[in-house]
Specification:
Blueprint lengths: L4 E12 L2 E13 L4 E5 L6 H9 L7 E3 L4 E4 L2 E2 L5 H11 E4 L3 H4 L6 H12 L4 H14 L5 H4 L9 H13 L5 E5 L7 H18 L2 E6 L2 H7 L2 E6 L2 E7 H6 L4 H8 L40 H5 L4 E3 L5 E3 L21
Parallel strand pairs: 3-9, 3-10, 7-8, 8-9
Antiparallel strand pairs: 1-2, 1-4, 1-5, 5-6, 10-11, 11-13, 12-13
Helix pairs in contact: 4-5, 5-7, 7-8
Length: about 350
């Protein structure tokens, strides 16, 4: 089966007064129809830039998608779309839910008008049909008294309800791909679970492919089937959910998993963290980008980018520890907590 989306050798740079920031460096992945794929990593690792490139939101100004990059939707490169094709793609075929709903919604427009816009543009509905469908979508995402709430403004909704409105806008045109960029950030735990349940339910109903951008591994465990681990604008490991959680092969993935807060911490036990800071992407390192923070760093790690090693069934990692000549290293106990 051909994937609905194929990203090949994606490279995105920002041109600043200080120089070229290489935000995304040679990222490749496939997204199957109906699957949920998670992209995880620290802030600044290139997750959101990758998502915006897939959505077609990166163009012009000081931003550049490098030559040789491909984003294939059903076999066609969206980077070569005409303005008319891109208008149909954005919102009609691919939709996005941002983390800050208040900043994403227009504060001067009623909620129903913001849903109706998409419906009239992409489904060519009349104003009356779009208004009825907007109320239906608000009801579908669990907003009580949707007829009344549809005529209200974003500031009259709570954070969780605004995120439901964003999901209603995204699903209004039944897109084939939904990108969720940190959809539960700044929401309390109960509301987070409700939002994730809603996305899962709508994904199953519409057979939508989902790209989930997050730094929260708990969210990943509840949503995704496959996981991409990004660091310094690159994919350092990818595999199934079970591979990443129970058979991780990259030291950065080990560090991410160990840094998740645990419920069984004893009194005065400290949380595990990842020491150091990510490299400056104005001048990326010649070798492995994680070498300055890695406990297993070797000389070659600083000098040369590691090769990608395949472990079967789509599980891959880019680390010199898996080279035949590298010293044998056992995966650490990821349940350990430093005292």
């Amino acid at each position: 089966m051909n994937p609905i989306l194929s990203v090949n050798h994606l490279r995105v740079s920002f041109h600043t007064y200080a120089g070229e920031v290489k935000a995304v460096r040679d990222v490749s992945f496939d997204l199957e129809e109906g699957e949920a794929l998670a992209i995880v990593g620290e802030s600044g690792c290139g997750k959101s830039v990758t998502a915006k490139a897939v959505m077609g939101l990166i163009h012009g100004g000081n931003t550049e998608i490098k030559e040789g990059s491909q984003i294939l939707y059903r076999g066609e490169d969206i980077l070569k779309y005409t303005p008319r094709q891109m208008q149909h793609y954005k919102g009609g075929e691919c939709a996005i839910v941002f983390q800050d709903a208040l900043a994403s919604l227009n504060p001067t427009m009623r909620v129903d008008r913001q849903i109706m816009e998409n419906l009239m543009i992409h489904k060519h509905m009349s104003r009356r049909e779009a208004a009825e469908e907007a109320v239906h979508m608000l009801k579908l995402v669990g907003i009580p008294d949707p007829e009344k709430r549809a005529r209200e403004y974003p500031h009259q909704f709570s954070g969780g309800m605004r995120q439901r409105v964003m999901i209603a806008i995204a699903f209004a045109c039944a897109p084939k791909i939904l990108i969720c960029d940190e959809p539960t950030t700044a929401l309390d735990v109960t509301i987070q679970e409700q939002i994730l349940d809603l996305i899962r339910e709508l994904q199953k109903t519409h057979h939508t492919s989902v790209i989930l951008i997050t730094h929260d591994l708990g969210v990943v465990a509840n949503m995704a089937r496959r996981v991409l681990v990004m660091y310094s604008g690159m994919v350092v490991e990818c595999g199934s959910l079970e591979d990443i959680f129970y058979r991780p092969r990259h030291p950065y993935t080990w560090a991410l998993i160990r840094s998740v807060p645990r419920l069984d911490l004893q009194n005065k036990q400290s949380l595990s963290n990842i020491p150091g800071a990510p490299p400056d992407l104005l001048c990326p390192p010649a070798g492995c980008p994680f070498c300055t923070r890695c406990d297993y760093c070797m000389d070659i790690c600083r000098e040369q980018m590691p090769e990608v090693t395949s472990f079967g069934e789509g599980h891959q990692a880019a680390c010199w520890l898996h080279h035949p000549l590298a010293p044998h290293v056992e995966m650490p106990d990821l349940t350990e907590v430093k005292a």
